[in-house]
Amino acid sequence: MHTYRDHHPVDLTVQFLASRLVELTRSEWVAKEGVHTLNALGSRLAAALGQVWRDPSLERRARDLLGVAKRDFTFRFREACSISAVEVESRLATLRQEARAALAALGPKPRLSVLLTGATGFLGKEVLVQAVEDPHLAELVCLLRPERADRSGNGHAMVRAEERGEELLRRLGIGRTARRRIRFVDGDMERPGLGLRPAEVSRLQGTLTHVVHCAASVAFDDSYERLFRANVLGSRNALEFALSMQRARGSPFVGHVAVETSYIHGRVRREVAGEHHLAFPPHFYNNFYELTKAMAAIEADRTMLGRGLRVAQLLPSIVIGDSRNGNNRGDTKVVNAPVNAVGRVKRALDAVSSSSWGERLRTALVGLLGTRFPADPSAELNLVTVDRVAAGVLAALTAPEAIGARIHLATDRRIRSEEMTRVMREELDVDVRMADPTLTRTVTLPLAKLVLSALGEPKLAAAFERLAGLFGSYSEWGQPVHAVGDDVAILALPAQRPDAVAAFRLLCRHSRYVQEFGTLRDPEEIARRERLWERVIDDIEFNTGRHAASVPAPEFRRLIEARIVLPGFRRRPAGSGASWPAA
User: Residues 485-538: pLDDT tens digits?
Assistant: First the structure.
């Protein structure tokens, strides 16, 4: 995963030339075949040298010199179980029939009791907000791990799940009536039985209809060990717990909903990543997050096919803020990160007043790195809005046909790198340009890091390096295209999927005005601002008759400033040019 690329000059050159070939021919197949041909030629040349000189060690040295991909490893997962395709489909059909029967036993208007993991995460919060409006929901039990927090100034006290939950509901704006259907219980995903008390387990055995497993670590740069604990061990524990609920005597249990990721397919070189199979890449995953989520998918398959747990697997692509207003409840990861970085660089450049040579050099480097978007023009990102994903999760609860299915919650209206740079230029007032991701990672960044460190800015250098490492791989050519269809056919979601360009524009506006490019960290303040932002967006759409994302950037800024005093993010007083309802 880490050793495949960026370590040999020939590898880097071939990657760069392949990217240019894609741009020239508009055919990734041509580039892919060209890379394979070059590698085969290098192998034959190295073998010939070894034969001529009758020295096997010379062949090895020649292969190293020519950059022949000895690091081009293929990793194959063991099959979930050694049964035929016919038997697999027979078992899945049985599980779907059981799910239909369990759901029908709840009556024509089923009342569901759901255990939710990851309620404090980005997606979990949205699931919680939508769930309390779901007429089928009778009880939502949220598993939270107790945290230590300094509340008294005399040391760290343990904050229990109930207290954390009340704080969460208040920030989400969930009223007291809806709160009656929500319980928060102490637990731990990394412990057997989810760390629940025996009394709580006994209570759930007689009421629980579903487990929704949203909890995961999406820290792309985290260590393998930590991601394994969160994503593989956590998923395994959730599956085991759901299976124990399903097998309990007299249990009303219907099924387990596992939230995975579309990127379990890794780098499949632009082949369509299908919905009904696991396809593992012949080269590498982008990070340990993808690898551990793929391993979690294997665990789900094993538990379903080998042990009979009724599982629906939902695979979101890259999740960003709400489709109407961009609200993301403080999330600053993945696509938010480069947008925030560009915005902060723009602010820093605008504030520079020093004329010293060191400051001018530092400013030039910051401007060079911070306004260059490491992306190939042919690269596409599949962005999906959080409200679409949460709606899919809740729809799976009452869709027995989702059992045994692997459903991509993605979009067929993707965004290209060149469109992303155009939107950032318009929305952030920065001259953002694309830069080759391979050269950025391997040449530009190391040199700039060396100079910035010499200028006494090691943290800034490390921040740019981390950003390129996190995001650069997703903007290279060869990322997968995800098949979609079952989100509509099975989950009955609207056929109109999110427009990634419009969603990305709202992301930029939310980052700029609400989160101040990620510098605002107080969850209370973010919650306050997002409530105001939602009302302002509604008012703009009502008065203009247009979706907020379709309003050009200069006009949108005028409309925002007519309604909000941006320093402090406060509503303008009545009579100042805007009329809209109070909270």
Answer: 999 999 999 999 999 999 999 999 999 999 999 889 899 999 999 999 999 999
Residue at a domain's end among 50, 66, 82: 66
pLDDT at residue 264 in the model: 81
Could you tell me if 498 and 323 are in contact, meaning their C-beta atoms sit under 8 angstroms apart?
Answer: yes
Distances (CA, A) of 57 to 38, 64, 557, 583: 22, 11, 66, 76
The two three-digit tokens of residue 470, written as one number: 């996190």
Sheet holding 406-409, edge to edge: 182-186, 137-144, 112-117, 210-213, 255-259, 311-316, 406-409
**CA gap 161, 154 in Å, rounded:** 21
Which residues, in sequence order, are bridge partners of residue 380? 416
Q: Assess whether 189 and 54 both reside in one domain.
A: no
Burial track 302-327 (b if 16+ CB lie within 10 A, e otherwise) = bbbbeeebbbbbbbbbbbbbbbbbbb
> Which 3 state secondary structure label does DSSP give 257?
strand
464 strand-pairing partners: none
pLDDT digits (tens, 9 = 90+) for 235-288: 999 999 999 999 999 999 999 999 999 888 776 555 666 677 666 665 567 788
- CA-atom Rg of the chain in angstroms: 26
Read off the DSSP letter of residue 254.
Answer: -
Q: Locate 452 and state its tokens.
A: 């910035």
Domain assignment of residue 525, given as a range: 521-583
**Considering only CA atoms, which of 368, 329, 325 is closest in space to residue 348?**
368
Q: Which two tokens stand for residue 413?
A: 């209206």
Q: Which of 223, 340, 239, 374 has its CA nearest to residue 287?
A: 223
Task: Assess contact for 203 and 183: CB atoms under 8 A.
Answer: no
Considering only CA atoms, which of 484, 347, 480 is closest in space to residue 408?
484
Residue 477 inside a domain? The answer is: no
Q: Are residues 42 and 154 in the same domain?
A: no
- Phi, psi angles (nearest 5°) of residue 570: -120, 150
Short-list 267, 504, 482, CA closest to 385: 504
Q: Which two tokens stand for residue 196?
A: 């629940």
Please state, in angstroms and rounded to a whole number, the distance separating the CA atoms of residues 199 and 561. 54
- Residues with Cβ < 8 Å from 176, sequence gap 6 or more? none
Phi, psi (5° rounding) for residue 376?
-85, 140
Domain closes at, from 269, 289, 316 = 316
Q: Is the pLDDT of residue 554 over 60?
A: yes
Tell me the three state secondary structure of residue 20.
Answer: helix
Q: Which of 147, 213, 243 is nearest to 396 (CA)?
A: 213
Between the alpha carbon of residue 452 and those of residues 369, 458, 521, the distances in Å are: 11, 6, 26
Q: Please write the tens of the pLDDT for every residue from 69-80.
A: 544 444 555 554
